[in-house]
Amino acid sequence: MLCAGVTTYAALRKSAAKSGQWVVISGAGGGLGHIAVQLSSRGMAHRVIGIDAGSKESLIMECGAEHFIDVTKHDDQSIAEEVMKLTGGLGASAVIVCTASNKAYAQAMDFLRFGGTLVCVGMPEGKHVAVEKAYPAAMVAKQTTITAVAVGNRKDAMEVLEFAARGIVKTRVRVEKMEKLTEVFQEMADGKLIGRVVLDLQ
């Protein structure tokens, strides 16, 4: 909670999305994402659309998402059209990118409604790439914002721990032996890792 919970809660707060507004969470079935879905839907009363691979749909819906989009079944245009359809043609007030994918950031710009905010959380590896489709003219026309969060503050931590104590947020954790480390990394690389993995070092 004091890592993924505080970070995603700070991202949701920074997005300025209000209760009842649409929030898209990209990478919704991962370690950060599944906590973000719970905080957003159950803690802040947002209407959540979770985006991830199809194998993570049940977890994302259990965490409180109103809709799920399988990223593997869409191209950039059709996934944006799906978000627009689900949000009544307006788009989302906020997009929280929890996955370390440049493509997710590029797609996110097309999900935003007028005045919407993209919050960067996941950090892609390798060569630094700017957020594709962050065209100044389009951002001015739609009054969109891009911001970022590394971690929250003491107040965020206290509020997240209170959510956890009340049972509003629960982590999905799997324990594996150290010998399984290579397999766990392969799951991560393949986008199949659901929730978090804790390594048993004994």
Q: Could you walk me through the main structural features you see in this protein, from its secondary elements to its overall organization?
A:
This protein is an alpha/beta fold. It is 37% helix and 22% strand. Strands 3-2-1-4-5-6 form a six-stranded parallel β-sheet, sandwiched between helices. A two-stranded parallel sheet has the order 7-8. Strand 5 (112-120), helix 6 (136-142) and strand 6 (145-148) form a beta-alpha-beta unit.
Task: Give a quick rundown of the structure.
The protein is of the alpha/beta class.
What fraction of the residues are assigned to beta strands by DSSP?
A: 15-25%
Strand-pairing-aware structural class: alpha/beta
Shape: globular
Major sheet summary line:
6 strands, parallel
Strands, total number: 8
- Rg over CA atoms, rounded to whole Å, is 16 Å
- Report, as a whole number of angstroms, the end-to-end distance: 23 Å
The largest beta-sheet arranges its strands as 3-2-1-4-5-6
H-E string: HEHEHEHEHEHEHEHE
The low-confidence parts are none
Per DSSP, the total helix count is 8
**Fraction of helical residues:** 25-40%
- Average pLDDT: 93
Summarize the topology.
Layout: H1 4-15, E1 22-26, H2 33-43, E2 47-52, H3 57-62, E3 67-70, H4 76-86, E4 92-97, H5 102-108, E5 112-120, H6 136-142, E6 145-148, H7 154-165, E7 173-177, H8 181-189, E8 196-200
Parallel strand pairs: 1-2, 1-4, 2-3, 4-5, 5-6, 7-8
